[in-house]
Amino acid sequence: MRSRLFTTINTAGQSATQVYGRIRAMVELFYDAVVAFFEVARKGTDSFQRQIVSQILFTGVEAFWMIGAVAFVCGVTVVIQALANMPKFGVSEYFGKILVAVIVRELGPFFTSIIIIGRSGSALAVYIANMKTTREVAALEMMGINPVQFLVMPAFVGMIVSMVGLSVYFDLIGILGGITIASLTVNQPFDIFFGKVIEALTPIDIFLSIGKNILFGGFIAIISSYYGLCASNIREVPRAARKAVVSSLMITMSINVCATILYYFYVQ
Amino acid sequence: MFNKLTLSHVGYALGATQILSDINITIEQGQRVVIAGKSGCGKSTLLELCAGIRQPTSGVLFYDSTSLADISYKQLLALRSRVGFAFQQHALIHNYPLFDNLALPLRYHLHISDHEIDQRVCEMLSRFNLLDQKYKLPEALAVGQARCASVARALIMDPSVLFLDEPTSSLDPITTALIVGNLQAFSKQENKTLIIVSHNTFLMKELNCIIKILSNGTVHDFDPLTTQRDSQSIDSFLLDHL
């Protein structure tokens, strides 16, 4: 009985140490990526600009249609549910507040992050893990090129820029989709609904949405890069992708919940 | 980069497996050294230790009188800009065309114009008969071409020290001669150090290399300056010690 208790405590201790080690390594990677960004911004090295642009193209531009479709469906669903459950009279008064609360503050950043995790976070982890196992990362180091500057920093910057851009795009399509359905269903002009949304939108909503996106983008890039760089053989490549997706989802969900709680305690 | 590379009682273990133990080697600036040995005896590991890719688990590695363990990562990266390394698997950046693979260190380290980068890369590619392949991705290259490209990338910065891991293994004689010819041209320059892992007696003979055989953790030297330098004597030395 005593030895079983000791084993359990020992295992828990080892797991805690491992988790602490991982978090510490990720924080270090985050710090290195930020330092690398400022170094590159100072030096203005051409090859990194290309890396950042290609990351934005892959994460941001190529996900454009998928995000647009999901945003439209979200906007339409939110409005249909709202219309079905709200009193018909004076619906436009609540309409703006609902769309801002659900689409701009919550679903926009969160859905965008889920799509980016599934699409770009996993791809980034596999990309770096493959480079690690084929010795391309070591080759970069042997050329005197810091892999954090060449691989992690462009992903970090590209992911943040793409997340912010895609989330604004998500909000726009979601709101437009919602307004279109609402104006068709309730038979009120489009511009009245649009005016209500603009009226309901406060600087805090915009700040919260952009702040979440910056955090989500940064965390997804660092977590995915970290697991990619941890891979030491070909068997660990799919594991790196899985760990990157699961950890990124956990972190973004936690941030989302914390941000929502803070908002309702301190702002509302 | 350094006048002397010294490995003092260097050992390397991977988990519970001891790969190298108590290795003592000194390589002077301007020397041409080939490390040979049985498969799995740790030649590539030794080369990577010398280049600072791996850290020894015991013993010390010195660049002149500075221990590699005392050099920060940033300093090590700066040192590596004056080092060339060609891996056994070519390790070319897979999503970069051949031209960009060679241009990468130039763009990163040297503030030179695109025109100059273009000139230097094309000149290097033509030395390896790869000029017509310059827009191809590494996956589209044949094994020999990829190996040549890897050596070309290692040479592009005109390094002081060149580390090559099996640069001619499983290549046809023409490609082998092409690589050896380029290595000869490199080694003829003043103070250029060449450290190669290879079993190719043609390469050893042509480059007039000091041969270091790695066997059971011991290093046996075969110095062509003090011994007859022909393929037969190199072969018999290899057979005696492998």
Q: What fraction strand of chain B?
A: 25-35%
- Summarize the helix and strand pattern of chain B as letters: EEEHEEHEHHHEHEHEEH
- Which bin fits the share of residues in helices of chain B? 25-40%
**Which range best describes the helical content of chain A: under 10%, 10-25%, 25-40%, 40-55%, 55-70% or over 70%?**
over 70%
> What's the total number of strands of chain A?
0
Q: What sequence of helices (H) and strands (E) makes up the elements of chain A?
A: HHHHHHHHH
Low-confidence stretches of chain A: none
Commentary on this structure:
The complex is a heterodimer of chains A (268) and B (242). By secondary structure, chain A is mostly helical. Chain A has nine helices and no strands. Chain A has helices spanning 2-43, 46-61, 64-85, 91-133, 136-142, 147-186, 190-200, 203-230, 236-267. The longest helix of chain A has 43 residues, at 91-133. In chain B, the strands form two sheets. Chain B has a six-stranded mixed beta sheet, sandwiched between helices. In chain B, strands 2-1-4-5 form a four-stranded antiparallel beta sheet, covered by helices on one side. The longest helix of chain B has 16 residues, at 173-188. The mean pLDDT of chain B is 87. The chains are: A mainly alpha (268), B alpha/beta (242). The interface between A and B is medium-sized, with 17 and 25 residues.
Task: Write a concise keyword list for the protein shown above.
heterodimer, A: 268 residues, mainly alpha, 90% helix, globular, B: 242 residues, alpha/beta, 6-stranded mixed β-sheet, 8 helices, 37% helix, 26% strand
Give a quick rundown of the structure.
The complex is a heterodimer of chains A (268) and B (242). With 268 residues, chain A is mostly helical. Chain A is built from nine helices and no strands.
Layout of strands and helices, then pairs:
The complex is a heterodimer of chains A (268) and B (242).
Chain A: H1 2-43, H2 46-61, H3 64-85, H4 91-133, H5 136-142, H6 147-186, H7 190-200, H8 203-230, H9 236-267
Chain B: E1 4-14, E2 17-28, E3 32-37, H1 43-51, E4 58-63, E5 66-67, H2 73-80, E6 83-86, H3 98-109, H4 114-127, H5 143-155, E7 161-165, H6 173-188, E8 193-197, H7 201-206, E9 210-215, E10 218-222, H8 231-241
Parallel strand pairs in B: 3-8, 3-9, 6-7, 7-8
Antiparallel strand pairs in B: 1-2, 1-4, 4-5, 9-10
Helix pairs in contact in B: 3-4, 3-5, 5-6
